[in-house]
Amino acid sequence: MYGGLIMIEENLQDAILLVHDSAYAYCHYITPNDVGLTGGHQYGFTFAKPCYKMFFEEPGVKGSNKDVFVEIDWQKDLIKTQSRAIYYGVGTRNEYRLTRFGNGFEFLREEYIGSLQIMTRNHEGKYYAYVLSDQDNIEKFMDLFSLDVTKGNQVIDGSSTISPDEKLKNDFISFIDSHLDFPDTTEMAAFVRACVIKANNYTERKIAEEADKIILKWTDAEYQLFRGLEEKIYSPVYSKPFENCQSLVDFSNSILNRRKSRAGKSLEHHLAEIFKASHLRFEEQVVTENNKKPDFIFPDGKSYHNILFPADKLTMLGAKTTCKDRWRQVLNEADKIPHKHLFTLQRGVSRNQLQEMKDEHLTLVVPKDNISLFIPDFHDNIMCLSDFIGMVRERQN
User: Could you give the CA distance from residue 42 to residue 31 in angstroms, rounded to a whole number?
Assistant: First the structure.
């Protein structure tokens, strides 16, 4: 059950095997636009320009449309569709889209917003698709193929390695060469910020003014650096045969656990630097009721515990890279603040979960460009990071 409605059962291993057996593969988070909730005449899965090779030999040319009809096997023989891959290049449009699935197609239901659609073409030219909705399965899939869980359309390449922006490359290589083990998350996050700031000539004012863009630059750059470190540190281990199945499982779990822990703590570090650049008063990990520790309290713990301090001047912000199945964890972290805020890099969740968040007085805070990935009906309960900073600043003035 999910959001009160039955969803198709999924098997992570089936999705992994489809990609392993494919000649070409990409993945895409299902968006409100895909399922027809943004007011456009078209619906169906969009796919990014770098993914055109899935269906076409050459990229689309602006000024003309082109299409191809394909049979797609969904969820390992569960559904077969006679679908149409089309490039729209006429007029103002410039997009690729996969359409024609028949009436009542399962994966165009609202409940699948935020799910991961995986499209593959095998060596015989047959098309197979798989949809993962369980957040743990999505993260394991993305980790296995070295993909960024916070990004949308991505070509899947099992041999993917570090590919940072050219301006950062030399600094990253030097950092990797100088480390034999993983550094503390604080050290690595600070190094990445310094590199990005230097490469782009960012000032403190620029960081504060463009918080929504810069938080994504920092998290993306750190992901690339971390992947490079992983390749260096782990390659001597995985290049040799494992003694038994359990040793392989233990090794894999240690990698996944490190990735999850690092991503969460790094996001907090980057947000803290943006709040400092914005000259906000805040404190991290304040101990509240029942020894809970919210990620951020504005203005500080002393004010939170002061019975004379106005409650409407207090703000609490949780931080989670993904929130699809974890947002409820922040609800009881600061009892004096009835309306909670949660920053996330999650790219869309279902209508039911958004309604639950609203009912529980939780407002999502996301990078500005990600707001369009959420159902429009709930945009009034979603803030961009810059607007959140403005709200806190007003409360502190």
Answer: 13
Q: Given a cut of 60, is residue 342 above it in pLDDT?
A: yes
The β-bridge partners of 186 are none
Looking up tokens 């990797």 gives: 176
Nearest CA to 176 out of 227, 228, 220, 218 is that of: 228
- What average pLDDT score do residues 93-104 get? 91
pLDDT of residue 383: 97
Claim to verify: residue 94 and residue 55 sit in the same structural domain: yes
Quick one: pLDDT at residue 219? 92
Whether 139 and 43 share a structural domain: yes
Strands (E), 247-336: 283-284, 296-298, 315-320
Q: Are residues 256 and 389 in the same domain?
A: no
pLDDT in tens, 262-280: 777 899 999 999 999 999 9
DSSP per-residue string spanning 76-101 = TTTEEEEEEEEEE-STT--EEEEE--
Cα–Cα distance, 235 to 51 (Å, whole number)? 29
Whole-angstrom distance, CA of residue 341 vs CA of residue 295: 11
- Average model confidence (pLDDT) across the chain: 88
